[in-house]
Design goal:
There is one protein chain. Strands 3-6-11-14-16-17 form a six-stranded mixed β-sheet. Strands 2-5-10-13 form a four-stranded parallel β-sheet, covered by helices on one side. The chain is of the alpha/beta class and 188 residues long. It contains three helices and 17 strands. It binds coenzyme A. The site of coenzyme A has 13 residues, from strand 16.
Length: 188
């Protein structure tokens, strides 16, 4: 009997399409796969050549524009690629936003993302694929060179310290510092 490689099954990728399209209420999608050094079916780069080229072109444009100091083109591009971006958002130079599934990012109004910060929206492990919505609530400040993991919500008015690595939700009005981040009350 022909063995189906875990993660290359159509049920997994169909479930992921539902997740991406917002047809489930889950914040994180996770599915077993074979080792990601070989195609798993979850990356747009695994598709037919035209689809893969479109994906690589889009990713190259997005990563290039995010490196620049100009804010407005970044916001326009993120919105064009499916991210939800509010008003009065500032994205500093050299920020890295996962170009694979930008539609999983929500940035509410009055958010500042510091220089060199990184926002991941998916992850391949040795035997699983996972992707998750990242939500930066109103008034959030992300410090320079911080790393925000996929599936994380940063609560309203919270601050992520420079260089912090955040893998869990940050409650509203608090401060996340260090790697792995610990949560501290924020003294206004
Ligand atoms: C998070 C931040 C705002 C904290 O400022 P603060 O309220 O004055 O906090 P404090 O300096 O009193 O520090 C509070 C605690 O957090 C720790 N802490 C603060 N910043 C930290 C950092 N970046 N990494 C690790 N720990 C940090 C302090 O050591 C202290 O720990 P303790 O209570 O165990 O002694 C500031 O440190 C920071 O990182 N700002 C980001 C600046 C930035 O990157 N801007 C983007 C570029 S424009």
């Amino acid at each position: 009997m022909k063995r189906t490689e875990p993660g290359t099954d159509s049920a997994g990728t169909a479930g992921f399409r539902d997740f991406l399209a917002g047809r489930t209420t889950d914040r994180v999608f996770r599915h077993p796969t074979r080792h990601p050094a070989r195609p798993t079916g979850f990356c747009p780069c695994d598709g037919a050549l035209p689809k893969a080229l479109w994906f690589y072109g889009k990713a190259a444009v997005m990563l290039t524009v995010l490196k620049l100091p100009f804010n407005a083109p970044k916001l326009a591009l993120l919105r064009g690629f499916g991210a939800k971006v509010g008003r009065h958002v500032f994205i500093s130079a050299d920020v890295w936003i996962d170009p694979v599934f930008p539609q999983l990012l929500t940035i509410e109004d009055d958010v500042m993302v510091g220089v060199g910060a990184k926002i991941a929206l998916h992850e391949f492990g040795p035997d699983y694929f996972s992707a998750g919505r990242v939500i930066l609530r109103r008034g959030v400040v992300i410090g320079g060179f911080a790393l925000i993991g996929h599936g994380v919500e940063i609560g309203e008015g919270a601050v992520v310290a420079g260089g912090a690595a955040v893998g869990r939700d940050v409650p509203p009005g608090t401060m996340a510092v260090g790697n792995p981040a610990r949560i501290l009350p924020r003294i206004p």
